[in-house]
Amino acid sequence: MTNTLLVAGGRVLGPDMTVERADVVADRETGRIEAVGPDAADEYDADETLDAEGCLVMPGLVNAHTHAAMTLLRGYADDKPLGPWLREDIWPAEAALEPEDVRAGTELGVVEMIRSGTTAFADMYFDVDEVVAAVEAAGVRARVGHGVVTVAKDDEDAAADVEESLRVAREFDGAADGRVSTAFMPHSLTTVGEEFLREGVETARQEGIPVHIHANETTEEVEPIVEERGERPLSYADDVGLLDEANFLAHGVHTDDEEISLLAERGAAVVHCPASNTKLASGIAPVQKMLDAGVTVGIGTDGAASNNDLDMFDELRDAAMIGKLGADDAAAVPAAAAVEAATAGSATAIGIDAGRIETGALADLAVVEFDAPHLAPTHDYVSHLAYAVRGSDVRHTVCDGRVLMRDREILTLDEERVVAEARERAEHLVERAES
Ligand SMILES: [Zn+2]
């Protein structure tokens, strides 16, 4: 066995959420985990070793719903509800974006994610070739897509937008040595007209392309659908073909019991975005009910403009905390469920073979240091992952068997250059948007 990476001396979080002393061996050729065990270090002559002494080795976190380039709008417009925030602030600024801005913003987002142990993400945006270039350079994994909006467009432009999303899904699937996968991404049930939605989803289904969409995010979005159609949004979504097993929906905040049953039956996953839903006062998703019904639940940060960071540890803590508030039950969304949702749940939601540390799975790992004061004592590792660990506790990040961050130094991108460029581009973007 040649070309191996050894992560030695740590404890490992298993798929069943147990923690044991073990080493992890990754095959850097296949990008998969070759062995996990207490003596693995003795059995392999590794080409590269990462020191995990005093650390917990866990699956890399999977940010299952974001718009990475929106880091450029972090802190640009806050403290407003979703509708006015989008119409008055975000969409006008996005209209002024140049492709190079998308590249710079995505790189900034990816640097932030690697720093905080996220190894894969699902991204809905535009100028997707720039997103793919950033993913390729950074060494992370992503399911990417072009977000379709047809409202306020004539039929020709609307059809072209649908076609662009399908084109992007076809063209970039398998890019970056297979680390990039794609989806058809209509923005939401209310921002894409019915005929365009049906046509696009049907084509995607025929071609085996998954679909990702925002759904049931706010009452402002749900109520008109109920009024106009006389049915719940996910009943409409089901009729359109959106609830197939390969598909995943962001938010699902205002989802009733029947819709939850429908999700469980059809197999579509829900990506819970607790920080975004809290900040925009969208509501509290019924996460424990979804888990009880057997719905696949992942976790996402949503864009940085509604969060305002991309730290998945923050996000899974919010999921555990707000899940209790929403269920009026301190036993709801326990630590292990939140950690599982941010790893295996998110990986299943976006359709990648990661999110768990076992032989054969993709070697996407985060190595978390446990010696900081806020992590002492350590009665329970999983409790700390949910309630006390911060993204800055991550020491090493590995994706596809390749080290992306070693001892808190990012190896694939020049962090200083990325941050400086993003600052400059964000400044010019806002000037253009407001002129
Ligand atoms: Zn979103």
UniProtKB/TrEMBL annotation:
Keywords: Hydrolase, Metal-binding, Zinc. It comes from Halopelagius inordinatus. Its cofactor is Zn(2+). This is 5-methylthioadenosine/S-adenosylhomocysteine deaminase. Gene3D superfamilies: Metal-dependent hydrolases, Urease, subunit C, domain 1. Zn(2+) binds at H65, H67, H214, D302. One of its GO terms (molecular function) is 5'-methylthioadenosine deaminase activity. The gene is mtaD. Catalyzes the deamination of 5-methylthioadenosine and S-adenosyl-L-homocysteine into 5-methylthioinosine and S-inosyl-L-homocysteine, respectively. Is also able to deaminate adenosine. The keyword Transcription does not apply. Its EC number is 3.5.4.28, 3.5.4.31. The keyword Hydrolase applies. Residues 56-403 form the Amidohydrolase-related domain. Belongs to the metallo-dependent hydrolases superfamily. MTA/SAH deaminase family. It catalyses: S-methyl-5'-thioadenosine + H2O + H(+) = S-methyl-5'-thioinosine + NH4(+); S-adenosyl-L-homocysteine + H2O + H(+) = S-inosyl-L-homocysteine + NH4(+). Binds 1 zinc ion per subunit. Substrate binds at E94, H187, E217, D302. It comes from the Archaea.
